[in-house]
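Side project, low priority. Logging it here so it doesn't get lost.
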Amino acid sequence: MTERIRCKICGLSQPGHVAAAVEAGAAYVGFTFFAKSPRNVSLDTARELAVTVPPGVVKVALTVNAEDNFLDDLTGSVPVDMLQLHGSETPERVFAVRERYGLPIMRAVGIAEEADLERLPAFEAVADQILIDAKPPKDAELPGGNGLSFDWRLVAGRRWSRPWMLAGGLTPENVAEAVRLTGARQVDVSSGVESAPGRKDPDLIRAFIEAAG
């Protein structure tokens, strides 16, 4: 029997949506800490949401070029299991954050063309997981969650030394095809299960996880 695809539902901000993700079988739930994002949550809200997540579901904090003082507050008040670095953090910064907080690190890497894949080995060496996302447009306000995909054939058949997760423009309608083309065993979705920016739809969450397989 083939192991199920592990799904991450990111950008959660409401208790009912966290519950829907957990009940549908999400392996990861993500909370976004980035002021410009419509999915941004406060530390207090994130803590209230995180304590409802049962053991076995990985609680991920998405940050963008966060300084140590914010990460100190975050890790000291919200019971997260993993930090997702989604900005322009260098491999050295990834290593430093991992050492300081003792939490697994997922480093997001934006992909638009084959040359972008050359950045991956440096992050493989220091991160626990790699999130392969669509590279945002140059004028984008957000580093992710833009609903954009990339040419999945760029990663088809490729394997890395670390677990990796596919993101970028995934929806209940296309996730099965994305998995088939790339061989991904983990997928991440945020805007693809929303009825409006930042507003998750429980029915879409369930449909996404079911479609992923």
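Brief comment: Residues 63 and 122 are 20 Å apart (CA to CA).
Revisit when time allows.
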